[in-house]
Amino acid sequence: MYNVGSTGTVDPGDIAKVVCTGTIIQLPGGLQSAPSPAEIGIPQPQFTATIRYAVSAEFDGWHLGDLLLLLRYRPGGGNVVAVLNEVPRWFPVAPEVDPGTVTETTVLEYHSGGETAPDEFTTNGAGGPELTNAGYVLNFTENFYYVALTLSAPERVVVTQPAVAAVQLVQWVEV
Predict the structure, then answer these.
(1) CATH code where residue 123 lies
(2) Handedness of CA 126, 129, 132, 135 (dihedral sign)
(3) Nearest to 5, CA basis, from 172, 162, 175
(4) Is residue 5 within 8 Å of residue 80, measured between CB atoms?
(5) Residues 119-156: tens digit of each pLDDT
(6) Is 51 helix (H, G, I), strand (E, B) or coil?
(7) Domain total for the chain?
């Protein structure tokens, strides 16, 4: 799976919250304030947007420990979170057996944070054999999979907004 920032599906309520420029998807520009409300102890509401990327069945039968969820992103003054979710396929043959709910299970997560250069693009991710659920097997016969990417930042005091240029699910290779 390889997607650039502009090929995801933006949650309907978040369409006005993102800007796509070429391969990059990001929150719109913030306002600079000095001193920031956070510096003087005023809580800041968060501005968030979620974009979903479908995962193709090419990874059917793979162990989670053999995969890496890789992001090319800029954290800016906010946060970037990518979550690989599993959704059971449910096509009931009779309405009386339909459970009436859809369950989603998070199988892998990546949270940005602690970067030394928040205004620069970096490549990082999560996965590999050290995962506690490394033996988990992706099963596309019984499930759908997608990556939910969430960008968040304070509404008012961000000079550089978080942005993502690429989301990729790849085979884990130890270097």
Answers:
(1) 2.60.120
(2) positive
(3) 162
(4) no
(5) 889 999 999 999 889 999 999 999 999 999 999 988 76
(6) strand
(7) 1
